[in-house]
Design brief:
Elements: H1 7-13, E1 18-23, H2 28-35, E2 41-45, H3 53-63, E3 69-73, H4 79-87, E4 92-95, H5 101-110, H6 136-143, E5 145-150, H7 153-157, H8 159-163, E6 170-173, H9 175-181, H10 191-206, E7 210-214, H11 218-226, E8 231-236, H12 237-254
């Protein structure tokens, strides 16, 4: 048995536009609904959802052979958590709140075996198909996506240096936290916020850096993908459910 290719790593390396979705409901059933939709990638979120290692395992299984690459966002840039997520077969990680070159380097090291990193070695894990995947150790570094998330003005000021860290495949702008850092809490789509994000993304894109983000607006997502962004998540599963049930109720009430 061979280590599977990671289509998302290859796609963003080649500059192919990738449409994603946030998966935050900690449910294999809701993940299964998403898995049949045809998104290029999703993020199974552990930072702002009740996901745990066991719930992430079941959701990763749902996306096997779906054509959608499931990245996982750990709740922090934590070496132990990263080790456990990689051992259960996460094909890529989105590291939250990376503030410096040193933190980006630590994130990469956590995904690498010695001597290039600090990841502990285990053989019979889900990632290795319990020892059946004979080329895992040779190929995992090449296949694992590492994305670092920039969420403050401090991080944006160091964006070029952070993006240049060896092993980082792309940077992800977190508009909600950037907005909060700028004094626009709860207003991630403010002009002032994007007046900071867009020029930074343009500078990075000119250097060949792949940029991504999450917006809850399909038109904005398409606009960003037409521009300097390579991978954009255009929705959040829980928000989509909330909007849908609210709209359905409103539609029925309006017809009574």
């Amino acid at each position: 048995m061979k280590h599977p290719n990671n289509p998302f790593t290859r796609a963003i390396r080649n500059g192919e536009k990738q449409i994603g979705l946030w998966v935050s409901m900690a449910s294999d059933v809701s993940a299964d609904i998403v898995a049949s939709s045809g998104y290029d990638w999703v993020v199974i979120d552990m930072e702002h959802s009740p996901n745990t290692i066991p719930t992430v395992v079941t959701q990763l299984s749902v996306f096997d052979n779906s054509g959608t690459t499931p990245l996982v966002r750990p709740d922090w840039n934590d070496t132990v958590k990263v080790k456990r997520l990689l051992d259960i077969g996460a094909p890529g990680l989105l590291f939250p709140m990376v503030q410096s070159v040193e933190e980006a380097e630590a994130a990469v090291r956590a995904t690498r075996y010695p001597p290039r990193g600090v990841r502990g070695v285990a053989g019979a894990t889900r990632a290795t198909r319990y020892g059946r995947c004979k080329d895992y150790f040779e190929r995992v570094e090449e296949e694992t996506t590492v994305i670092v998330q920039l969420e403050t003005k401090q991080a944006l000021d160091q964006a070029e240096e952070i993006a240049a860290v060896d092993g980082v495949h792309g940077v992800f702008f977190g508009p909600a936290d950037i907005a909060a850092d700028m004094g626009f809490l709860g207003k991630p789509m403010s002009k002032e916020v994007w007046d900071l994000i867009l020029p930074t993304a343009a500078k990075l894109a000119n250097k060949g850096v792949r940029c991504g983000t999450l917006v809850l607006d399909s038109a904005k997502a398409a606009e960003l993908l037409r521009g300097d962004f390579t991978f954009v998540a255009c929705g959040l599963d829980s928000a989509l459910l909330a909007r849908s049930v609210d709209q359905l109720l409103a539609d029925v009430k309006s017809g009574i």
